[in-house]
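Re: the pair you flagged

First of the two:
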Amino acid sequence: MDHKLFITIFLISIIFSSCSKDRFEEVSKPNIIFIISDDQDYRDYGFMGHETVETPHIDRLAQESLTFTRGYASAPLCSPSLASIITGLYAFQHGITGNDPVVKFTGPRYPKLEAGAHDFPRDSYPVRRDSAFQILAKNFYKNKLITETLAEQGYRSFQSGKWWVGSAEDAGFDSGMTHGDYTRGGRHGDEGLKIGREGLEPIYDFIESTSEEEVPFFVWYAPFLPHTPHTPPRTLEEKYLKLTPDSTVAKYWAMIEWFDQTVGDLQNFLREKGLDENTLIVYTCDNGWIQDPSSNSYASRSKRSPFEGGIRTPIMFKYPKGISPKRDDKHVISNVDIVPTIHSILGIDHGELPGINVLDEQQVQNRTTVFAEAYDHDIENIQNPTETLLYQIAIENEWKLLIPNLKMIEKADKTKEEQKAGYYSNEIQLYNLNKDPLEKNNVSEQHPEQVKRLRKKISSWYQN
């Protein structure tokens, strides 16, 4: 072969090889779906050992994922927890510490919005609340959200389900269901709360549109499930009414299976469209829930509490092209680890995020402690949202330490109402989770060295 012709062919092959490689890297970016359960106990899954609740689709997801059964929400309340999931920051860093800002009132600690309970007309509450919330939102959006990061990587994103801080567009999604307009009931997620309960068509339509455009997608699926109101399909309700004498528990269990069915529907859609192999699914729950058999609400030591029933959740990462399935029952991880893990998959620098890449086994083994914060439901001071801190929490291997904020918790609150609001004890609490998984025995006096050591870790972590 002519020498010059050989060189020419060689150079052309390099050019085409380079172009093909760039294109492969572009299309091989995984699609990403966050599946976020809403108000569910960490034990209420088949794969976690529940003897009655059936969750076959989530069980299969757990088998196909890198699954951490000792995952933790950064806060036992939905809005700050969701804000951590989307930022990779703790509440004291991102500023969303509660669900609602307090609008000045003269009533009791937890007033109902009734005439006479406040020092302003009831009709003015939505306007005043929205004005205060806008300040919180403005401060929150100074943080970089995963939506912004993914947009820089060529992703299109869609929001459905719960979202507290304004609209889907405010949060950097290209489109979504939540409008956030207080004049139309914008709170909690508004129109987004229809997802799952009324089918998954908006998600399907969005994914179809991204396939046509040949761009990777990010879907936020945070349905109002199994959250109250517990209104499951009648067939599921009847199924569980035969398995428990408590109708409220039966409805809660039925809601869990209904949620599981939607997870199965979503995964089946991905398989049918040939998207399963190149889609990263991240699963977690925003906060815990233990059903109160005597009411339609939650029991104490669950939602809004610093106990395992309030903050523990399984966390899963399924990505057939890049993650080997494995169940980890030993190491502790947090929902603040989700964003840096995605950064690592995409080859993006973590910056100063507090979490780790949970795909790195060495990082997982070296990090022995995760932290959490428990705040009051409402944000008293929008300029200083951490004033309503109730507990700082550290979980290290078998040890768990709770440090109360004595400015908020002045006594050991014994009533059911106080405990369900997150007020439990003004004493330091230390538990050995291996020996006492239900956190019944405070052993802080017997192990002062553990208290001292973990308290020092909390002081280093909580830089407010």
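Second of the two:
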Amino acid sequence: MIRSERADDGEYRTVTLDRPDARNALTPEALDALEAAVVDADEPVVLLRGAGSAFCAGADLSVVEDLEDPAAFAGHGQRVAESIETADAVVVAGVDGAARGGGVELALACDLRVATPDATFAETGVSFGLFGAWGGTARLPRVVGEGVALDVACSARVLDAEEAHDVGLVSRVVPDPAAVAREVAGNDPDALAAVKRLVRRGARGAETEPAERDAFARLHGDQFGE
């Protein structure tokens, strides 16, 4: 259900949601495997992709319908998204095809989101009486702003790749997301980890300047032997 493979050049790891017959919908077991694949990666960059024609349809609805503890299931997804967000590696969501509900939330937990021209995005939960509860109500407004976030979450409408780029949901529309992962992985891994950590802290409203100074001094010493 989850494939984890080191790229041929060894510079990054590809983690693939591999359940194409179900549009890569996620079960609790798949969430655990996804978390382990990202957190345990030794490479400085992880590319998250979906097999087949979709990126990820979100939670497996057959599981959702039979939940005995919905709050625990939501908490499970939140923990996995948090693990992706705080992983040592820079995580690139390479969205090709449909991202729906929890699939959008997984992409939001990643550090970079890039899309192919065939990518589409939608928070469809409100259309059947639910909403994304894997941290999306916090991350979506941080990424696209409150007004756009409410539009996307309350309308359940589908955004194509161009509109997703226009509103800032993705940073690039590219033919092959692997090229972006390779580009990022070509940089210094310690610098990548420091930038990720500091930007994430700042996005959450934490004071970053002292940590930024310390990290810069440490990296400078590593590079110039001081």
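The chain has ten helices and ten strands.

-B.
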